[in-house]
Amino acid sequence: MSNDSIVSKYSWTSFPLSVDPEHFRGMIYASPDSEHIIWQKAFLDPVFSSSSTDADAGKVKYIYETQDTKDRRVVIAGEKMSRKYEYAQMEMGDIVITSMQDELPLSDHDLIIPVGREAVNVNFQEDARTFSYKQLLTRGRESHAMSGTVSSSAAAVAGSGTRFLTQIHVGDFLEANKKSIRVVSVETDNILHLESIPVPAWNSNVPTRRYERLTKNTAQRLRDARDSSRGYNIPFEARIGSDMNSILWTGGVTSPDFGVTYSVEYDYYPVYEVREDLGIHRHVTGGRLMALTVVCRLWTPDTHRV
Hints:
Blueprint lengths: L4 E2 L8 E2 L4 H10 L3 E11 L17 E5 L7 E11 L5 E11 L10 E6 L14 E8 L3 E4 L3 E5 L2 E5 L3 H4 L5 E4 L2 E8 L4 E4 L13 E4 L7 E8 L12 E2 L6 E2 L12 E8 L3 E6 L13 E8 L8
């Protein structure tokens, strides 16, 4: 191999060291293997302690912050994926990512979610790699505190300091004064309507959203949802929420009742962790940064619990 070029089994190209970085930027964006990613940068948790005796506190080594990757692309190659579940679940795989350092300076332990050549479009099939997952959910099992207080008049609910348009959806259950009732319409941030009348009437009570959270927090498309009585029409009656981690019941009252167990099957994006910077392409030309290449491995939330 000549001294003025690099060829690697991990590299997607060979190139002279003196080439303008813009040449590589053009190659990345023109490559049929280039795609968008969601990038969560890893920071060491300041309270992390491997010697902590607490069952939870001080056990998570990294915290992650999502970075702006709009209109940025990387080249992904060398993927290998396999998966087995439910019990003794195993996920294995390696991918190699090449990006421009001045756009996406990926580093060790960052989390990468490849999402295909098109921008993220939850609930529609994309050209990205996905896994399929099945799980059981209980209607309204999860709770999330909402802003303000609520008062009812018949089935109408008026909020004070509430943000209904962003904090609750049609088909969710609204809980106040220990009573959970399905939401059938959301008019404004301060007005919504329920499926039935709260008894006794709500009077300046604190509201809570009751919903279902998915095991995988990168859900991309809902394939099936059913309970013991029927299957639901996807995506007209149910789909993945915009948070990629919950079920949105778009059919309103056409959804399982509170406390009912139902099953879902959905696709989700695999999450990869940057494990090694290969040092390829990192040469500086004229003070400008070249491309970089990193190896990533399939990641699970327990990877950095010790």
